[in-house]
């Protein structure tokens, strides 16, 4: 708990094959992409009405206060735009669905995975939502990953997007993150942008860049010093510094 910088940081939702396979095999809704979108809209509408009732009661206590609903309460920070929806979306159509719903309910959004992001670059640049790409170092385990490529991160970054990389731990173990960034550089991403994609960019997306993500006065004094390019697999850590104290030193 002492390691937590911000809580809550986001609310997670999923589109595509994951909810379809999870509920579909039990013959429950949602079993289609249409049902996923419909049920999400329905839930958000209920949450909006719940919030409106709370606000009406706060303005005039003669208005009945709604019964406490923990499910609706969990969505209030999203509706108030205090935290974003982190959207699991691989396919282009799922990303577009998420964007439409975000606009409909005026929500903050991050698009996570973005496997087909390279196919809709211009649209993503125009919309401007934070993008989290990955895991790229994985097999095509489901049909929506058929367009998986190491090129996605570089294509989006070179188009001007500030992207973050993810291993989707534990799908791909977290220690592989620098390797994923190195592979992205090999496939067209600029080195400095790849470093930013695993440091300052995710810090901005999570809203914790006032504490971490870059070496600046006033931020947490957590620094790792390498003997070479940190994205090279044969590079080694020389020092690890946490809160300004050396906690690891290569002998």
Brief characterization of the structure:
This protein is an alpha/beta fold. Helix content is 38%, strand content 14%.
Structure description:
α2 runs parallel beside α5 and α8 (177-186) runs antiparallel to α9. The chain is an alpha/beta fold. The chain has two domains: 11-219, TIM Barrel, CATH 3.20.20.140; 221-251, no CATH class. The radius of gyration is 21 Å and the shape is globular. The longest helix is centred in the first third of the chain and has 27 residues, at 33-59. The model has no long low-confidence stretch (mean pLDDT 96). α6 (121-127) links the parallel β3 (109-113) and β4. Helix content is 38%, strand content 14%.
Task: Give the SSE map.
Blueprint: E1 11-14, H1 17-24, H2 33-59, H3 70-73, H4 76-79, E2 85-89, H5 92-105, E3 109-113, H6 121-127, E4 131-133, H7 152-158, E5 163-165, H8 177-186, H9 191-197, H10 200-206, E6 223-226, E7 237-242, E8 245-249
Parallel strand pairs: 1-2, 2-3, 3-4, 4-5
Antiparallel strand pairs: 6-7, 7-8
Helix pairs in contact: 2-5, 8-9
How would you classify the quaternary structure? single chain
> Spatial order of the strands in the main sheet?
1-2-3-4-5
Measured distance between first and last alpha carbons = 31 Å
CATH domain topology of the largest domain:
TIM Barrel
Name the helicity range. 25-40%
Broad structural category = alpha/beta
